[in-house]
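Intended use. Records like the one below are meant for learning the mapping from a protein sequence to its folded structure. Do not use them to infer anything beyond what is encoded.
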Amino acid sequence: GFRNLRAAEIKHGRVAMMAASGGLMAHFVKFPGFEDIHSGLSVVTTGPGTYGFLALAVVAGALEMGLWNQDPSKEPGNFGDPASFGQ
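Structure written out for the chain above:
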């Protein structure tokens, strides 16, 4: 119902914020092994860029399916402190 829609809205908003930050950081930060790959959307169709995209998709899917599940006893969007920052 509404509770599931609210949790999905909050989660998708957080993902969109991380994607926007990642899009900006891609121009300034290069991971080891990816220094020669240019920035932009065409990176997904190049060799090492495709492997990085697939790795990112697998990690994001694993987090979505396993670690970041909504607890019915908590309000929507409250995933506790998954990184143990003590907040």
